[in-house]
Amino acid sequence: MRRTGKTSLVKQLLSQSDITQKHYFDLERIDTRALFSEPNYETIIYALTQRGTDFTKKVLIAIDEIQLVPNLPSILKYLYDTYDIKFIVTGSSAYYMKNQFSESLAGRKKIFEIFPLNFGELLSFNGVPAVTLSFDQSAKYAESEYERLKMYYDAYINFGGFPEVVLADSIAEKKDLISDILSSYINFDLALLSDIRDPTNLFKLIKLLSVRIGTKLDVSKLTSVIGINRTVVENYLDLLEKSYLIKTIPVRSTSPDREIVKAKKVYFLDNGIASLSGDLGSGSKFENAVFNQLLHKGEVAYYQLKTGREIDFIVDKDFCFEVKETATEADLKNVQSLAKNLEITKSFVIGRHPVKKFEGFIWGGFIR
């Protein structure tokens, strides 16, 4: 997604590389786009040679915002195969990248997904020391650590993890930055990816999804509320997920005749965006934050019986989690009971307010 820190990471990688011949190109610059739009790919080599590059030796080239030159995969393939060049390429439009790069660079690439900061990274950005904990370690409550980290965790829940938002000094500045990020995403990235001429319906859909965090997707209901046909809504949902605004998670199923097996739950990949785009309650904010914390721990799913009883999150088919702002032993017993159906022995309750601590309780800020 846009503004997750890709350019900063690329420049850091360039500075750390022992390859002496290095170039960085930003395709948002017109002159750079002109260079990589040359129909004769050898002209690119000639132009860089004029700048002092010796292509008889190894070269490292970083290219930012690659979605702005549609033919770039073909260019990279030719240059990579013909010369001793290593490329680092980035783009904000994952939907484009996955479709255009999937086959043309087969066997020649490694893909890294860059998300907004998780809570551990947020602490690091603020200069706060904190080690990564296993789930069992997270369940060992320490009051002093809660007091030390509480303020940062509240900020993570309310404003998410975009790097510039995390580093902003005031609440007003954080909100302005989040609004700008969402606006850029809708008006620039999605406009580039699709033929959406009027983003109004898309923004309506985003708002509707934000107040449905943690609930099963009901496409028919979304269709009736927005007033557009089902195919368009489904296409929009696919676009929003493949461009990293939302994420859907599947149900974990062992007995299809007793469980809901088709509907997916929806979450946002940044809490700041989710909070901005809808009237989000504190419980939904917390659940969405926990989802983003668990997302980087493994494969996430949920579990629900037709009776409505459910497990909020299952990670790697090994751990079950119930999410409650104020957790109780009864919440833990409920998730443990349901976990038996899945033959999972590790269950926890993740809480925001540690009013009562008990074995199996995890304060959300300890997941990092």
3D architecture notes:
The chain has 368 residues and is of the alpha/beta class. It folds into two domains: 96 residues, Oxidized Rhodanese, domain 1; 248 residues, Arc Repressor Mutant, subunit A. It is built from 16 helices and ten strands. The strands form three sheets. It has a five-stranded mixed β-sheet, with helices on both faces. The protein has a three-stranded parallel β-sheet with strand order 1-2-3, sandwiched between helices. The longest helix has 23 residues. The chain is globular. The model has no long low-confidence stretch (mean pLDDT 91). This is ATP-binding protein.
- End-to-end Cα distance: 21 Å
- Shape descriptor reads globular
Strand and helix order: HEHHEHEHHHHHHHHHEEHHEEEHEE
Under the CATH scheme, the architecture of the largest domain is Orthogonal Bundle
GO molecular function: ATP binding
Domain AAA: 1-123
Protein name: ATP-binding protein
Keywords: ATP-binding, Nucleotide-binding
Key words describing this protein structure:
single chain; 2 domains; 10 strands; five-stranded mixed β-sheet; 45% helix; 368 residues; 16 helices; Arc Repressor Mutant, subunit A
What's the quick description here?
The protein has 368 residues and is α/β, with parallel strands linked by helices.
Topology record:
Elements: H1 6-16, E1 22-26, H2 30-35, H3 41-50, E2 59-64, H4 72-82, E3 85-89, H5 94-101, H6 119-125, H7 135-138, H8 143-159, H9 163-167, H10 171-193, H11 200-210, H12 219-226, H13 230-242, E4 246-249, E5 265-268, H14 271-276, H15 282-295, E6 300-304, E7 310-315, E8 319-324, H16 329-341, E9 346-351, E10 361-363
Parallel strand pairs: 1-2, 2-3, 8-9, 9-10
Antiparallel strand pairs: 4-5, 6-7, 7-8
